[in-house]
Amino acid sequence: MRETTNNSASVTTLARENVQRLTPYQSARRLGGNGDVWLNANEYPLAPTFALTAQTFNRYPECQPVEVIRRYAAYAGVQPEQVLVCRGADESIELLIRAFCEPGKDAILYCPPTYGMYSVSAETFGVEGRTVMAKEDWQLDLPAIEQALDGVKLVYVCSPNNPTGNLINPDDIRSLLESTRGKAIVAVDEAYIEFCPQATVAGWLKDYPHLAILRTLSKAFALAGLRCGFTLANAELIEVLMKVIAPYPLSTPVADIAAQALSEQGLSAMRQRVADVTNNRQWLRQQLEQCDCVEQVFSSESNYLLARFTAASSVFKSLWDQGIILRDQNKQPGLSGCLRITIGTRQECQRVVDALRPLPGAKSSVNDSSINNNSASKEPM
User: Which interval of the chain is the signal sequence (predicted)?
Assistant: First the structure.
């Protein structure tokens, strides 16, 4: 046993120093839990059904499956040469860093509170992750960003922003694109754009050669388990990314199902999901605003709601114990007391409301409910 332990320690020390120090992204599945109402990963609550049509599993797949590219380009309103398909939008985040950032020299920039994979990916590749806090309304602080651009090769802007749910002012994105022209790539993360399609910046590609747009089938297309995402950009930028992408990023079954999801029938089903989620989101927001333990529910253009709670850690633990798994955002900058709730089915949303209604609010006495006796240290996060 002693020899095994020594060997393990030796392997750890062989890892790059930044990897040794790295805290991996705490995905919903890593955090675990034994719930039956999973509202912590912004997934669609019901699984679509597909039948495989491709059976050439003895052959390597196409690097960039033609039918998937063609259909996504038509859906997004761009040209096929402006589309790169990869293993989820998370791979797009990494491809951009690998292609444009020199480790130990260049930096990326992002504006917390926002998606955590920007920082994790930068640290993984030994690239500085530079932050400029969003303003109180979660919009870009353009003067602060411009002062921080020295050495920055890549700027990430998430719109709608995860976890806050708000759209970034399009005029501010344009200003950012102008100030970074010839200096840095601006990546606009549109993972949730299907819930507000009018807000896409895909039509701006003709004006900005340094614009990249990140997309995914994980949310409104209900295919989080497929791991299929896209980068939209001009052909020159796509060609750069093609130099660093894996030779076979999409398996044959993934490409098969993705093409089906992007058919006319698949797009119609996606838009019906968006309508259902939007209706449930509106209903849930109204119900949350009537719960004593809820201090504020923020507007959202996505498939989740961010809310601020009285005794958020105790609320989180109480629902966790009832099998309702939410996402704690309490440690994100500016989000003290906040939990994020994915929009589930109406029945799942009702479960959330029923669990929250008995919980006390800020004006309640500590003795009114034993829930306040639960300490934050018991929170399974």
Answer: none
